[in-house]
Automatic annotation (TrEMBL), chain A:
Its EC number is 4.2.1.33. This is 3-isopropylmalate dehydratase large subunit. Binds 1 [4Fe-4S] cluster per subunit. GO terms for molecular function: 3-isopropylmalate dehydratase activity; 4 iron, 4 sulfur cluster binding; aconitate hydratase activity; metal ion binding. The lineage of its organism: Bacteria, Bacillati, Bacillota, Bacilli, Bacillales. It catalyses: citrate = D-threo-isocitrate; (2R,3S)-3-isopropylmalate = (2S)-2-isopropylmalate. Residues 9-455 form the Aconitase/3-isopropylmalate dehydratase large subunit alpha/beta/alpha domain. Heterodimer of LeuC and LeuD. The gene is leuC.
From TrEMBL, chain B:
It comes from Oceanobacillus chungangensis. It holds the Pfam family Aconitase_C. Coiled coil: none annotated. GO terms for cellular component: 3-isopropylmalate dehydratase complex. Keywords: Amino-acid biosynthesis, Branched-chain amino acid biosynthesis, Leucine biosynthesis, Lyase. The gene is leuD. This is 3-isopropylmalate dehydratase small subunit.
Amino acid sequence: MTKPETIIKKIWDKHVVHQEKGNPDLLYIDQHLIHEVTSPQAFEGLRMNNRTVRRPDLTFATMDHNVPTKDRENIKDEISRKQMETLKKNCEEFGIKLADMFHPDQGIVHVIGPQLGLTQPGKTIVCGDSHTSTHGAFGALAFGIGTSEVEHVLATQTIWQEQPKTMNVHVEGDLGPGVTAKDLILAIIAKFGVKFGTGHIVEYTGAAIRKLSMEGRMTICNMSIEGGARAGLISPDQTTIDFLRGREYVPQGDAYNEIAEQWLALATDEGAEYDATLTIQAAEIEPQVSWGTNPAMCVPISGATPSISDVEHKEDVQRALDYMGLEENQPITSIEIDHVFIGSCTNSRLADLEKAARIVEGKKVKEGIKAIVVPGSFSVKLQAEEAGLDKIFLEAGFEWRNSGCSMCLGMNDDIIPPGGRCASTSNRNFEGRQGNGARTHLVSPEMAAAAAIEGRFVDVRKFVGVLN
Amino acid sequence: MEAIKQHQGLVFPLNRANIDTDQIIPKQFLKRIERTGFGQFLFFNWRFDDEGKERADFALNQPKYKNTSVLLAGENFGCGSSREHAPWALLDYGFKVIIAPSFADIFYNNSLKNGIIPIKMEETQLNKWMEQAETGKLVLDINLKEQTITDEEKLVVPFEIPEYHKEKLLNGWDDIALTLQHQEKIEQFESSL
Ligand code: SF4
């Protein structure tokens, strides 16, 4: 019998190009994803040193951070336009496939990778973006890198990586009705803190994880970085295989069945050891709402903001409460919002939009609230429209936009004004993230939809239609 | 990347935990396609008010920290987005060394790639220096080769940094050039796929 191994170790070992004691390993990269914000300086570096892109065929680019979600023909922001044009020029010069603003494959880079089947079990995937961990949902080793590393991967198709420690985040039991993958990952970060995963690659295991759809798994892995992890992943199973079958970039027909066998064999072996294990009980988790300025500052909907006398880092908590315009001990259900954003690489896939639509169907967004839905990709948008979701949202008073990062970080025109308060399905509630002085509350799509109707946070489990 | 062996500089204390890269450089400044010129946007929302005027209550704006080049910060410095614009902004502003109890992984790597020395330091010592830098003026002398920090009272504190990172910083080596020495191995690997 060979020693039981984790999926992390199995993928790692298959990708080592060069190893030397006392140094990081040189790892081969199977898939490099690129977007407009973190790549221009990397291409410039290549040109300055007379280098070229080693494997344009393993590189795929899109535009997502800057793209307008309304009028794409007339981009008012000159610098944004230049950044997108630069990506286009770079892709042409180096022969890289690009899904630009008008391309049917365009979308948030972490939505289109899986959608196209570029994301596959066992692959090493990098992107100049911290939420690259999303792709780990498929049992890929996927992590975010900086621009210097983007340049390095472009030039060499490899990256130097210290072998990280492994961590098992084990979710015992089942999630209750109306409790989503988003609530689970927020609860994990709230419980273990914003740096529980530093220096580690996290594997999520347990019954509740197995029962999640691929969309739910992507939501979980997406926010691994919010817990400080280098990457997060989930061993592939039948759900993974079913999701990828027939997608553009996976083998078709019998070849798919063959590769699927290999993928399933990557799953962590029974009895494999991790450097650390954390356990959380799924049944105890309620729908979550973040109240502060980092994703660990998060409580159940039935809870309240902390009481200063109870907390260790009093100054940090006070600063967060001040920024958020909240009092200590304030019940979450008393917090009124004026913006709702359903979108981002965490929660903008078809399944997310369907669930939110079910909540708002036949209801109206409360007066005075600006609510927008931004599908994660052009293709998600089309599918949603075929299913009539756009009408449900529009009739309820939501705006229905084109795909992109949008209000998740407000690099385009979708910004929340100073002091504005948003129920957001995105992943970061940092100061100023959605606009200077903007206040972000992280929630699931269902909770965001319910907040849009009620004008404040409510327990979505009380809404008809959510519990089936 | 410029080689760095030793650095002596005035300390700026920023006693906050979990300073994320959105704070270090807000997103509206990520649209430029150059690597330079980001210093003016460093800690933008803390340094400037809504009208673009300097905020008096943010210490970096005080004359006593003019020409600072050593940053002391709280735990988990540089968490959040992978934007390398964060170390570019710090470096362009003048920071050469960052000392904190812990760093986020991607930020730690990104700083090393740009010739900034990120130093992990246990909190007791760090807090002492933090206080000295807040109440008075503190100059620290960082010797990368010896892996020591010396303060004005001649207290010498050792620090850890992985040997390979140290070598690269000391020599200002270009990562890609180093990797290309293994080109043959990369080719072998590819042909085995
Ligand atoms: S949606 Fe938000 S978090 Fe995701 S890639 Fe875009 S900006 Fe980053």
